[in-house]
Design brief:
Elements: H1 2-29, E1 30-35, E2 41-48, E3 53-57, E4 60-67, E5 74-83, E6 87-88, H2 92-102, E7 109-122, E8 129-140, E9 143-156, E10 159-169, E11 179-180, E12 185-200
Pfam families: YceI
Protein name: YceI-like domain-containing protein
InterPro entries: Lipid/polyisoprenoid-bd_YceI, TTHA0802/YceI-like_sf
Amino acid sequence: MKSYIKRNQRSLKIAALAIVVGLVPVTLSSQNFKLSNGEGKLAVTGTSTLHDWEEVAEQKSGSLQVDISGELPKIAALKFIVEAESLKSGKSAMDKNTYKALDTDSHKQIVFQLSSIKEITPVPSSSNKYKVVANGNLTIAGKTNKIELPFDLTVNGEKASLEGKKGLKMTDFGIEPPKALMGTIKTGDEIEIHYNTIWKK
């Protein structure tokens, strides 16, 4: 009886070891990255009746999880966060109008959360660059909309980059385009988000 129990215990240990060994490649192939705030750039551009404008995000964060074990990488998770009041234009009056339009007293962050990957294709003549179209939820000023986010993904050892641009309308998020000087200067409804972001392990 004792020898039977020992054989069973040995078999269970071998089976457990086989399961763990089988899982190791999957675990190792999944890479986790954090957005580097001090590198790259995320900016919002738009128009007005006076001039074009740009606001740059000074505080951004996020997480990215990529599995590179197959022919094409699999993006398991992606989240962008921009602190709304870190958007700076270089003009304090414009920034003040922006924060009022975004209702930053109540809604501190702008957030994109990945829900699925619609498409991913390799870039010709590049071994680690891919064109991606991601589906996700974008929350601005407290309102969440489903959007498609296009970007180029590059994974190179300890570092990854996401680069692209996305057009949006303020009114789709319940935001009234800011005005200045008693309404004589009006901001256009359409804006464009430009992102060239660096992510590190």
